[in-house]
Amino acid sequence: MSNETQATPTVVSLRDRTPTITAAEIVAHLVPPRQFDGASLENYRPDPEYPSQAAAVEAVRSFSTAQEPARGLFRRKSAPRSKPGLYLDGGFGVGKTHLLAALWHRTDGEKYFGTFIEYTALVGAVGYQGAVAQLKGAKLLCIDEFELDDPGDTMIMTRLLGELADGGARMAATSNTPPNALGEGRFAAADFLREIQALSGRFETLRIDGTDYRRREVEAHAVVTGDLDAAVASADGTVSVDDFDAVIEHLATVHPSKYVKLIDGVDTVALRGVTALRDQTQALRFVAFVDRLYDAQVRVVASGIPLDEVFGAEMLAGGYRKKYLRAMSRLVALTLL
């Protein structure tokens, strides 16, 4: 019989945290999420039923090794100039983020990897010129889930990427389906190139067909904890315990760029009394919070309604449908950790 006893978890409250974050700290977090630490072209497994997936691997490999033609008098005029941008175009769950992370790992020198929201959060936190100063000199910028549903943010990102590209940065991006698209599998390359306008000529587009490997999570349900106190007591490490409504209110007081610090050092987030969200602004903040939980692979335990049911039918029928579906899929996964 084992004499080992489980250590008592450290219990904290997210509501007690008012994190601060510097531009340098935001930039330090611009790396692939933990689950893609080992992503490579070699461990991406193409579906043989979709040849475009194997073709995508080779295209990313070629992009990662492409060199700009030599400058000056001895540049060969006939040498084709490779475009500095690559856009990975496909539906849900075809491995675009894996390929983007693999490209990041294959690139030497200064490089950054973040979601569209993380880059715009950097601009929001330190201003446009501050963001340029922090990212200047990068050899590669990877932008995952490029948002096309906010014209203002899209224009800011287009300007930012253009300035960095003029400084020699190469870019790779994936994109969310725009609000007027019906069906999450619809390819969005034309919409992406139209929205980024002046930058469109700098991107090669690469279409990746396939089925959603995460579809089983979207069709599943988040686990509901009957006895939250018992779940907290049996958890390891540091556990945050809060009422769901209180967390939603607290998120409104914290800039989204600081959400990563809000959960710093937390191993499990416990949410008591989950209810449906009625306000879209609150829902979008919660989506951003869920993204940070997912990137950090923080386990979630919750009582009340299943977390994948917090977004009502009206929200799921609106322009942010894909964001909500992604958050639902991630919440299911986090409750199963």
What are the SSEs and their pairings?
Elements: E1 10-12, H1 23-28, H2 51-65, E2 85-90, H3 96-106, E3 111-115, H4 116-126, H5 128-135, E4 140-146, H6 151-166, E5 170-175, H7 189-196, E6 203-208, H8 215-219, H9 228-233, E7 238-243, H10 244-251, H11 259-262, E8 268-274, H12 280-296, E9 299-304, H13 313-316, H14 321-335
GO molecular function, one term: ATP hydrolysis activity
Keywords: ATP-binding, Cell cycle, Cell division, Nucleotide-binding
Protein name: Cell division protein ZapE
Describe the 3D structure.
The protein has 14 helices and nine strands. Strand 4, helix 6 and strand 5 (170-175) form a beta-alpha-beta unit. The relative contact order is 0.15. The chain is α/β, with parallel strands linked by helices. The protein has helices spanning 23-28, 51-65, 96-106, 116-126, 128-135, 151-166, 189-196, 215-219, 228-233, 244-251, 259-262, 280-296, 313-316, 321-335; strands at residues 10-12, 85-90, 111-115, 140-146, 170-175, 203-208, 238-243, 268-274, 299-304. Residues 68-80 have low confidence and may be disordered. The strands form two sheets. A five-stranded parallel beta sheet has the order 3-4-5-2-6, sandwiched between helices. It has two domains: 10-17 and 215-335, Rossmann fold (3-Layer(aba) Sandwich), CATH 3.40.50; 38-208, Rossmann fold, CATH 3.40.50.300. The chain is globular, with a radius of gyration of 21 Å.
